[in-house]
Amino acid sequence: MGRDLTRFVTAVTLTTMRMRSLSRMIRGKRGQTAVEYLLTTVTLVTVFAGMYGFLQGQLRTLFRIAGIKILTPYY
Question: What share of the chain is helix, strand, coil (3-state, %, to 5)?
Fold first, then answer.
């Protein structure tokens, strides 16, 4: 009987340890996912802000040229 009791206690201890490590792993993945989303958002905002600053002067010129070409046939 002593052996059966020892085996049962060991199994419960291992199961408890596995559940604890699993819960830590899940929390770690959630944190990693949140950090990845934040880094991706910051990167995209930076890229689009840079593109806007770079293309802003060129867009004005392109809109003027397009406006002149559209309005020329009517006048």
Answer: 95, 0, 5
